[in-house]
Amino acid sequence: MADEFSRNAGTYGSAAIKAYLEGLYSPSTPALNDALAQLETMGMPQIQIAPTEGKLLALLLKLIGAKKVVELGTLSGYSGLWLAGALPEDGHLWTFEYDPKHAAVAQGVFQRAGLAQRVTVLVGAALANLSIIEDQAPFDAVFIDADKHNYGRYGQWALQHLRPGGLVIGDNAYLFGYLAGREPDSETSLAAIAGMRHFHELLSQHCEAVCIPTADGLAVGRKT
Question: pTM for this one?
Answer without folding.
Answer: 0.92
